[in-house]
Structures
1.
Amino acid sequence: MKMDLQNFSHKRFNILTQEWVLVSPHRAKRPWQGQEEEVVNEYRLQYHADCYLCPGNKRANGEINPDYGDVFIFENDFAALQRDSVQEVKRDGLLWAEGERGICKVVCFSPDHSKSLAQMDVQDIAKVIKAWKREYAELGNHDFINYVQIFENKGAIMGCSNPHPHGQIWSQSTLPNEVVKKDYSQREYFRDNGKSLLGIYLDQELELMERIIYENDTCVVIVPFWAVWPFETMIIPKKHQTDIGDLSEADEIGFADAISTITSAYDKIFNCSFPYSNGIHQAPTNGRKNEHWHWHMSFYPPLLRTATVKKFMVGYEMFGSPQRDITPEQTVKLIKNCL
């Protein structure tokens, strides 16, 4: 019997992390009587006097924000990583700890409190990308910084503590877990084939056109074959670029256009301000060539069936492996209908 990926349970392999995800398309029909979240679609002013991130306002640590006009970046007042952490190794039998140094920053995308990336103009998103590029280079130039993680948590459901449009940058002395896995997989493939793993994958997806949402001259927006989250997507540059520092000005606009397209489509799926976590994975800043890396940006939204039903990573996901019901191919159709 030929495998039917749209109706029967199966596993899919993630070529970047070398991990499996269980796909159970038949479970999408099960009734839901569980937790439902509150839909947050409140009207927000362009400026909020109580917002710690709005221009001219006082932050929690007493500092005053400048009257900024586009992108504003500052060191996180409550950073998870410290510049002066002692980089020592402490081992006592099976108890093992190491000091970790780092620099954490907050990136305010816009002075307008009411706008998310989905409401921003492509040109304004391009300014954010320029800021990301600058921070990636400047932070990576520190001798104790070997990785720069750019990310955004959008929505209270994702633990975002402030609705003002902003993201974060955590830079640190070692590679975090997910990056270690992707670094290994891409390095091994490049060593054996002399080509980018994601580049070859993208060529295959563009030939099949089953999971492509949108493309322009610079980027492709895709639902990965191995996607875990119901509405997970990835932006991949068509050219083999190791990091966002390789983006030309034209590429910046193309990347901004891709971000604008997927975020605005998200908001239309369930007619709500669609929550997600997004992040850019790119080459480490460890002084090595890292030619095996192909940068990409992933979006992990938690919503499952409606604006109020969330995908919970519990039970089997915690103790076995990730699992999803709706297939990536079904997701593509739903998102493309919102373009």
2.
Amino acid sequence: MAKQSRIFGATQMIPYGKQEITQSDIDAVVETLKSPFITQGPKTQEFEQKVAQKVGAEFGVSFNSATSALHCAALALGLGKGDWLWTTPNSFVASANCGIYCGAKVDFVEIHPRTYNLDARKLEKKLKSTPKHKLPKVLVAVHFAGQSCDMKRIWKLSKKYHFKIIEDASHALGGSYRELPIGCCKFSDITIFSFHPVKIITCAEGGIATTNNPKYVRKMQMLRSHGITKDSEDFVGSFMVGFKGDNAGAWYYEQQLLGFNYRLSELHAALGISQLERLEAYVAKRNELVRTYNESLKDLELTLPFVAPYNYSAFHLYVVLLNKKSGIKRRELFAKLQEEGIGAQVHYIPIHLQPFYAHFGFKKGDFKVAESYYKHAITLPLFPTLTAQEQQKVIDTLRNCVCKKA
């Protein structure tokens, strides 16, 4: 069968992930375009409040991406030169890069063989065997594919070994851990969500940090906007200006930190507010599609996703592993799916195997579970508007390519 075109208007690939934009989303953005504010206005604050309320956190700080949010969260927790950040090798590079941005050193913790998340048991073992000067100041726990790491166990370790925790929940908005919404920060300092188009809901681009600590909120708010404050209660004055801000006009502001331009616009926030109304429906639909996949593929030589009993997964991704008896190599299956117009993907190439991280001494064999997982993993299409016909096409293609269990 000829390879099908990705070009709009031709036969479309079934992507691995896809946003849904409804008329209500369009109306919300257009309404904001007609308002006095298209940036730094009330919609951004409304979005922050609604996300925080949805996940049971006290505060939300929005950003133009989850990467920006990770960067500022790490800085807010005091990460800097000479410190260590630990995370998982099974994630997008941003989960580790945020440490490099801060001038810190990065190390990784092996993944759990069933959830593919950072393995809390391996974390404990590594903490015990690591010299004090190399222990992490910050741990980034990534909730891979939509389900939470074992945060209660990780939180207990953080108290013993004195590190801060960022939950990278870019995949997990709408999921829960031990019946608590992911993002409530009961077992972490800050949680990060992503609103990229393939995520659970979208702002087109965007991210948010949720937390229960007002000090982190203030620091992140300043960092995302050039390190500047206009709040008179925070003014320190300047010998160059000659007087403290409370004696100046309403124009007065102070740059107190070296910050960035990481703000989310009103347009992106308006889209996010509209999308947030469908969050529960989206996650429910993803879980329904997963049940269909699981039932239809259970007799094939594939390892299907495992969800820990304490988790309700948001199922951002549906990842299967090819078993030794699958009868087809991953490269061949990937090509066959592409041929059939199915946009499969692989999540993720282990971060420590990226050429950039070779500069820090990482090499093949350092994290064997993550590397083995990567060799066999393939991500299948999963998004709320995936039709029954499209899903059946994915299922039929797999059933035609992969051996059945004996």
